[in-house]
User: Fold this.
Amino acid sequence: MSLTKSEISSKVHEKVGISHNDSLKYVNSFFEMVKSEAERTGLLKFSGFGNFAVKEKTKRKGRNPQNGEVMYISERKVLKFKPSNVLKNKVNRQNGLEG
Assistant:
């Protein structure tokens, strides 16, 4: 299941009781803050949810899967997510994987 900003905004509207326009402004503001903080510090921590961290990947050799030709993958930054134990336990309980 994917969850769009519009769907998040609708859920905020239902739970908090503010207008659709205001809830969409808050959701957009939240994502802008998250993006700018990830860019600025490279680390985001959400208690009870997980951590997002910017990692640098070095240039490496790869293969084109269509023709097997050797190619080089450029260096870049990626965003990695590590879920908290609280989130992992909740997901496992919901899927009947108590443990």
In short: The mean pLDDT is 92. Residues 20-41 form the longest helix (22 residues). Residues 1-41 form one domain. Residues 62 and 71 are 5 Å apart (CA to CA).
